[in-house]
Amino acid sequence: MLDRALSGSQKYWGWLAFLFVLMAVGFFCYLYQFKMGLKVTGMSRDVSWGFYIAQFTYLVGVAAGGVMVVLPCYMHDYKAFGRITILGEFLAVAAVTMCLLFIFVDLGNPVRIMNVIMYPSPNSILFWDMIVLNGYLFLNIIIGWNVLSAERKGVHYQGWVKTLIYISIPWAFSIHTVTAFLYAGLPGRHYWLTAIMAARFLASAFAAGPALLIILCLIVRKLTKFDPGKEQIRTLSGIVAYAFILNVFFLLLEVFTAFYSQIPGHMHSFVYLFVGLEGHGKLVPWMWASVLFAVVALILLIVPGTRRKLDTLLIGCIAVFLSTLIDKGLGLVVGGFVPNPFDRVFEYWPTAIELLIALGVWATGFFVLTILYKIAVSVKEEVGA
Amino acid sequence: MAIDRRKFLKIAGLSTLFGMSAKAAVDIFAPGEIEAALPPLTEGKRWAMVVDMTKINDEIMESCVKACHQEHNVPDFGDPKVEIKWLWEETYEHTFPGQKHDYIGEKYKHRNFLLMCNHCSNPPCCRVCPTKSTWQREDGIVMMDQHRCIGCRFCMAACPFGARSFNWGDPRKAPKELNDGFPVNLEYPTRSKGVVEKCTFCAERLAKGLLPACVEAANKIEEGSLVFGDLEDPDSEVREVLRNHYTIRRKPELGSNPNVYYIV
Amino acid sequence: MKKMYDGGKIVAGLVIGVGLLMFPFFYNAGRAAKAPDPVLTPKAKEAKECVAPTPYMKAYHMQLLDEWRHEVVRDGERYYTTGKRGDKRFDRKLMDMGRHFAAGVGEDDQIESGKVYYKSLQVTCLDCHSNKSKFCDQCHNYMGVAPYCWDCHIEPKEKE
Is B12 within 8 Å of chain A by CB? Predict the structure, then answer.
């Protein structure tokens, strides 16, 4: 079916070429970073994880979000979603690819990456993260490919694929729980040391993933002859709405615990992010932008009228995407490191090289996504779905 | 038996995957690695350090830092962003942030304390390392293996004490004005970019029966300002000092059980 | 003869591909790289023996250093005791490599057993072999290997 990706319109090739240029720029910037070391990024002794790991964390959520299509379809017989499970699975493949790339570019010694496999350390959550992420990647590739080619041939996919699909459902929950455990088990970082971290991660994942999926469905609807379906998009939008409400609710729960208890360790990171600490407040406008997007999203998604209309739904989904991207893809990681263990504030901001490399990784993910979606949509068009 | 291309590729792919994972499975289930991941049973030694704040002063602390950083070729970049420090000074308020208040007496207000890796008995950094490049030895020292470190910096996030430094760039490219004669100690390697480093209680000196460099430097100026020894030995100097003085440790409530004590 | 579909593209691709593959040979045609000529320092000559018999060191110094760095850093075992020619460590490895290596090991390759060395590339090995560019680099450069040991372990300053 790969040959489906080799034929397309001018716009298709133009888009791929544009992505390729971004990938190339990112790649050459990465070569520079590889040569000079990670000092070319904005990370420091005090904020030792930055944009790369934050984006990785966000994208694990997006990857997990695909389960919100698979779960109703296979566990609750909501057959309508069967039409678009492939889009969710392929989105997961692209997202996990980006996750793995972000980890790779963040490593100080990437040539030694096989050490994680050669010296397995079950005590380390990173070890389990490697296992569940790669497992999820393979699961989605195998399931997606087999289901799609069965559809193309007009037959039902084989029984073992269904077993894998059932495995992928709790597996999706596990990838983001394990990623949350990276943060939630560290005794010295009080912003992260909360039991609700995994729940927050899952809630924002199940909002962001399906929101992005809706955006992609609307794009597919516009650009191709395949219509993901009004009912599917409508149900998805309901899922996004509830997941996002939960996400915001969980955040407010955290804020309550921090500020009602008045414990400095709990409050300081929030203060740094939303007001500024000791005169440092680089992230303050960004966090409030995230709040603004969240408010817009909540209104557009809760009010049935705006949720049902596709153009307002689109804005709502973009708002969800941006709000969660800033919150998880910037605020979470940086906030955990500020203030540092000595109660001092050292700020972090990504450098240009860092952003270009990150852009290159995003472009790679979208490249993979475009190719996979082209194949999926071509098959669907072919069988007249 | 005829075999088509698809089947062949499937079999080849599966065998490769199986082969790769077999090694990992053997390593996980082979005796030794799992046990090493559990908290070690301390038999014999548990190295600890006591910093006597009643005896130590800024001059001694500076000589300690110099001794340590020269012994181990720790570069000075002159930039807190990429700073590498194994042993350093920090004020009272920032060493014990939970203890600061507005009415601290002259004795400790803004007074410098000497900080290093605490070689915790229950180290979170070792728990999180995905390659066991940092691990707890049987004698309690939290050791670093820079041959294996992949530079993921999870240990840096996990350390509640900010004791670890990362080589953001090549340490040999540190500014020459700040690093006269670098590397000073030709018997100890430098590190390369991309690995984490920290105080190792001078494991290589202990192996030769020498005291850590900082302890030696401190005791040259004021005997007993830094006391180093074995907590498991009830007759050791550290045990005596701990019996006779009140000591505090950094962030004990976090359960990592640090082994650097401060006599206050 | 049947027409080869896309024949033009295939032949062009073959020419480019094979050309790229064969490029090193074209580039170096007519030249011979200088054979490696490792030179022992006076101190090494005086010592007469290394930590293991010379044929063993020639074939296995990489593995030895790898084992050493694991044992020193991870196991805390910093001292190495030599064995004799009959030491199973050396014989078995040499036999693995093939009879011709074992055959090259003669009486001259006896080393004193029971000698204790501090396991350190920087401190022990380079103490005798302090002429890295005339010793280690000779074979390494010829073979095109660049061991990353030197990123961290300090090379001795060579005279002249």
Answer: no
